[in-house]
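Sample intake sheet
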Amino acid sequence: MSFFSSMDISASGMSAERFKMDIIANNIANVNTTDAQGNPYRAKMAVITPADRPEFVVPVGMDEGEEEGINFSGLGVKVAGVEESKEPLKYVYDPDNPRAIKEGKWKGYVAMPNINIIEEMTSLIMTSRTYEANATAIEAAKSMAQRALEIGRQA
């Protein structure tokens, strides 16, 4: 792994976490939203996967047959897409609401978005801390490079 690979990995993590924060913020903003037809907003989630590795390069000192045990790509992560939450919608009793169900067992109930604000805020905090950890890793790599250059100057 080259020196810049560590920065690339952390940068991909920061980019993915920033995208995830945007999705979470969108969910929080739409906690009480419906579309023009009265359908409630459904929570969305970012799908983050390992980045594809173009080819396997056998590291120095490793035999060709040893590569089966390695399951990581070492290229960071990528955003694979956005999925809608499968959680059921929430229902609130509000018979005066024009979107209320008019007949049947659920008469008077209004379908609301399936967003749990506590879970969203917790996810936002975790995502923010992951972003900060990646930023710290980049700063550490930068600091190591600067110290290596200082050693080179002193020699």
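Comment: The chain has a mean pLDDT of 85. Residues 117-154 form the longest helix (38 residues).
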